[in-house]
Amino acid sequence: MNLPDGAAPPGPPAGGPGTAELDVAGCERVLRRNGLPLLLEDHSARRDVFGRSAPFLVVVLLLELTGAVNGGWTWWGNLLAVAGGAVLIAAAYVGLNVLRGRHWSTLPQDVGGPELAFFVLVPAVLPAVFGGEWGAALVTAGGNLLLLGLVWVVVAYGVGSSLWWGLARIVDELGASLVRLVRLLPLLMVFSLVLFYNAEVWQVFSRTGGAAGVILGTFFAGLIVLFVGLRLPTEARNALRAAADGVPGAAALPPLTRSQRFNVAAMIGVSQLLQVLVVSAGMGLFFVALGTLTVTPEVMDLWGIDGQRVLLTFDLSGSPLVVTQTLVRVSVAIATFTGLYYAISVQVDAVYREEFVEGIGEQLREVLATRVRYLGLLGGASASRREAEG
């Protein structure tokens, strides 16, 4: 525990209304809700990451019973194979309990190395046993291993909670994003409109689809994450320092560990990425509407553009309008470029950085106030135990 020996619970409220009435469990709920589970004392990956994810992992395990299915068998043969797979998984889990000295039907209280190895390896056995498909077995094991890594990142660093918090504040995020967007609008609109009404851009994206489109989108999304992440450590320190000034008792808190600082940075990064997403989505919808009105099939014919599949057709005052696959591809591409431009501009402009720190400050003040209360309660409980033992 990070609280110095002998520390007592704080008396007056340390932050927002209701903070002083929180118990330990309530403080932990506030920290988790704000996407900061690593600020909990005695945080454990076995219990707090994989243990909390156990229901999701069980659902995935049940879905992977389809690994026993073989397309060349009859329906009843596949049904028997799935039932046999379920029996095999159940028997393997019973064996795991016996080897660990537990009752055969014991459900895991936490999820450690043996349980994780079970999740990775046992479902991979099904396609090998029931169909001799060793390649599918390796793919299943590799996929499960990657899934565990993703679960660890999302749950350990509170990415899901940060997204949920951000979505709950989507109106505020939209307002903040639009204010910044308006300031960037002159250059941004010139940049975007020049690209949008460029026949070569339409020709490129009319032929870019499938795997190439996914790779291209992933590349630009990675660039956005990279530019947002470059300043996150500095941004987290500045935001915490600014928030601590408004919270009584925050200056006396023990310093955050490296993993806790990374958790704060990840929470701030998710909030920034959400703003980029809001801007990109808004620009994408704008260009779909603009292209539907102005880049008609006749214009595309003049440019030599194949509109690909028609996704939507409607009538506006007697004029037929269509939304084509190529229009959507171009709009998504321009929206992605706009998001990248916005992310870079926000990172390099000091005015935007200051505004963002002020915007995130309210959340961090609540977090710090809760942490003052939380560590105070834990310190008081520890002191009481020592007095009772003495």
Automatic annotation (TrEMBL):
The keyword Membrane applies. The chain crosses the membrane at residues 49-69, 75-96, 116-139, 145-166, 178-199, 211-232, 264-290, 326-344. Keywords: Membrane, Transmembrane, Transmembrane helix. The keyword Lipid metabolism does not apply. This is Integral membrane protein. The lineage of its organism: Bacteria, Bacillati, Actinomycetota, Actinomycetes, Micrococcales.
